[in-house]
Give the backbone structure.
Amino acid sequence: MELDTLRDEAQDLLGEMVRLRRALHSWPEVGNDLPITREHVLAALEGLPLDLTLHETTSGIAAVLDGGKPGPTVLLRGDMDALPMPEATGLEFASRVEGQMHACGHDTHTSMLVGAAKLLSARRSEIPGRVLFMFQPGEEGFAGARFMLDEGLLDMGPRPDGSASPVTGAFALHITSSMPSGWVGTRQGAIMASADRLAITVTGRGGHASEPHRALDPIPVACEIVQALQTMITRSIDVFDPAVVTVARITAGTTNNVIPEFAEIEGTVRAVSERTRAKVHDGIRRVAEGVAAAHGTDVTVDVIPGYPVTVNSDTFATFASGVASEIIGADRVLRLPNPVMGAEDFSYVLNEVPGTMMFLGGTPDGKDLATAAPNHSNRVLFDESAMVDGTAIYAAMALRHLGGVPG
């Protein structure tokens, strides 16, 4: 059994993967409840020697392939959910659901994971251990991975022969339009940021806009807080351990001649280490409370924790790069110099078991990387042929980690 045949076998599956991907793309679903998507996936897995668990709190599917020999379990993740946004790609298989779109490529992730399940099922007798295929909903802000973990995703009992088979590694691919099709990239340590929500309410006293001295205007105080937060980031946070605080919404007032009582600020907080994450949270409260006190207004500050930092195991990231090099060639495997400031709930999995996330290039041929529509754009396009490389890498990661192929 050699890895050099995996890509050819994945190529033979491309037609099936494209059909599944396009079906999912046409009928996207948002959040943790994905009944149509789950039915498509179950139909695609039908006939494979998998032990299926349908999760109850979400539409998650845990599919286990039990190999023919004793060994540990490796987890492969593919997320299934879409985004709440319109599509403007003009594709013939564009979304048929108003206000919902697979704009982050999760339809390709799901299709590649199904393809990997087929490649590995064909090698079942030679696999020492088990493969856990994690078909996950709710990645786009709904913490689907956490729900699946809470339902016991990693609680792997003994194999039929009584031997233990704990999960000892986890791997996920994420397609991106910022890399050439078929290239991959990863890095040791933090690869994606944490994502927390910021909500600040400044409370003053309302009054007539012509007499601000008789009121206590919360709007300039809110504006000062926004500016002060940016200064706090640049003057107190290490540039080599960065953070981002972006205020995305300020809401206040109802008309032009009334000073309102309240001004509301909302935004996002990103960091690539838990140390800096905690420092920024403290800094936000200190700055907002200090500015508000200076002007005599009241303020409430809420920093609502979201996804933690996604941290790759150093050894697993190096291992993944080596496996990918065997499949697609070392010249198409990149070591990413910096983390991505987007966030991922695969972080919850990597907090429990060592593993890595890797980015898969999906920019179609002929598209300029500098101007190609990015992930989360209503016009983003992905090269479906990149799924061949991704599927082969998924399968190869499992085989190498479980020791089914000599390294």
Notes: The first helix runs from residue 6 to 12. The chain has ten helices and 16 strands. The chain has a mean pLDDT of 96.
